[in-house]
Design brief:
- The chain is an alpha+beta fold.
- Helix content is 24%, strand content 27%.
- The protein has a six-stranded mixed sheet, with helices on one face.
- A hairpin with a 4-residue loop joins strand 2 and strand 3.
- Helix 1 crosses helix 2.
- The two termini are 15 Å apart.
- The model has no long low-confidence stretch (mean pLDDT 92).
Length: 135
């Protein structure tokens, strides 16, 4: 199966990996875990889980568009949340709601939510990866 690895415009370019992996055939799209970075690699919403979830969703939408898809094509979202406790659910859902309103989509909640001790940099509170199926 052919796989096309890309770094879409609008997402930071990271030397050690690509943001999106596109497989041809039944066109499975695996979106690398997105954190709250803007296109320049600056963290958005330091200390604010809702803002970081919102930015992650916007990044996923950018990556999906590069693959020719949208949130309608998402088969699975996996959330990694630093120091997860149930009281973090309201801000997490607020971030999903705000991003969904900006994107004009029906909110897509996580399929899997995992609590983790830390992410790549201390300012990141959440990372979200997506799997989409196109065609």
């Amino acid at each position: 199966m052919a796989i096309n690895l890309v770094n879409p415009s609008g997402l930071p370019k990271i030397d050690v990996y690509r943001q999106v992996s596109i497989a041809t055939g039944s066109k499975l799209v695996f979106i690398a875990g997105q954190v709250a970075w803007d296109a320049e690699g600056t963290t958005v919403g330091e200390g604010d889980l809702a803002s970081q979830v919102e930015q992650c969703y916007l990044n996923i939408a950018t990556a999906l568009a590069e693959a020719g898809g949208s949130f309608d094509d998402v088969a699975k979202l996996t959330f990694y949340v630093v120091d997860w406790t149930p009281d973090k659910m309201p801000p997490l859902l607020e971030g999903i709601s705000r991003a969904s309103a900006k994107l004009g989509i029906t909110p897509v909640p996580p399929a899997t939510l995992l609590g983790v001790a830390a992410l790549d940099v201390p300012d990141h509170l959440v990372e979200i990866e997506a799997t989409a199926i196109l065609d």
